[in-house]
Design a protein that fits this description.
There is one protein chain. It is built from 1 helix and 6 strands; from the N terminus they run ββββββα. It is mostly beta strands. The chain has one domain (10-74). A hairpin with a 6-residue loop joins strand 1 (9-13) and strand 2 (20-25). Bound molecules: zinc ion.
C-alpha cells in the first residue's frame, strides 16, 4: 500500500504506530527524512544491488522500519521486507 501525495512524494509510515517517518521522491531517486534540525537524504543509483536496506528507528515507538532499495525504487514502503524477486 502506498501513500502518494499531490507532489508525487511517497510517504513512509511506521509499520507499528503509523506516524510518517520519511518521504520518497521516486523522480529524484531520493529518500528524505527530517526530524527537528536533523535531515537525512539518501540517494540511490541503478547499480544492481537491490538488497541494500535502510532501517529507520521510529522516533515515537522505536520500531525498526526496514525497506530494501528495491522497495524504495518501486515506492513500496509499507509492510515487511520481501527479498523475493517479483515485480
Ligand atoms: Zn512507530
Amino acid at each position: 500500500m502506498k501513500d502518494e501525495d499531490t507532489s508525487g512524494l511517497v510517504h513512509w509510515h511506521c509499520e507499528k504506530c503509523k506516524i510518517r517517518i520519511a518521504v520518497i521522491d521516486k523522480e529524484e531517486s531520493e529518500l528524505r527524512l527530517r526530524y527537528k534540525d536533523l535531515v537525512i537524504k539518501l540517494n540511490w543509483s541503478d547499480e544492481p544491488c537491490d538488497n541494500d536496506t535502510v532501517n529507520v528507528l521510529c522516533r515515537r515507538c522505536a520500531w525498526s522500519n526496514i525497506v530494501t532499495r528495491k522497495q524504495l525504487k518501486s515506492g513500496f514502503v509499507n509492510g515487511p521486507v520481501d527479498h523475493s524477486v517479483k515485480k
